[in-house]
Design brief:
heterodimer, A: 6-stranded mixed sheet, 5-stranded antiparallel sheet, B: mainly beta, 7-stranded mixed sheet
Chain lengths: 110, 119
Amino acid sequence: GQQVMQIPQYQHVQEGEDFTTYCNSSTTLSNIQWYKQRPGGHPVFLIQLVKSGEVKKQKRLTFQFGEAKKNSSLHITATQTTDVGTYFCAGASGTYKYIFGTGTRLKVLA
Amino acid sequence: GAVVSQHPSRVICKSGTSVKIECRSLDFQATTMFWYRQFPKQSLMLMATSNEGSKATYEQGVEKDKFLINHASLTLSTLTVTSAHPEDSSFYICSARGLGGPSGNQPQHFGDGTRLSIL
């Protein structure tokens, strides 16, 4: 079945440093979504990418969808302590459901 | 907007008890609701997809007789864990997807989750 992997599994950064998480799917995706889950909380929708090669920005966050629509990345510039949490990608491959990636847990050291 | 309420937030009960968890979309109609299970520090594992007015679609390896899903209206889906045992202890989260737009292109809005502990 479809698998969605993310690397790294964990990342500790100093506040102000950049952070990137990579998402790779075993199958071609129709679209991909990104979510953030704070410790003890539920996932919160960040963004959706649909087009091949698409790049979207939200303030310090940059999201990219690969040309082959099998991978994606989330880059955070100049991390802040509020960025702490686990970032999940979730990919859909033409069906109604999304498969969540393994997640990247980000810790930001002040 | 797009608020999903999940209740209860925490359940502690004895082995053999059946537990019902409710998932409501408060300010939008949801044709599709999803039920996930999340183990500590792990990803969300899709258990089943609940469609209003029809039978739920279960993922491989999920026992439909163990995890009963009912999607009675466009704003309510319930998950009942029947005869729960300690291995069913977990964090269960629902999500709802609204109407409109191409199927699969709507974001999921998550409830706060239910932490189930079976003694």
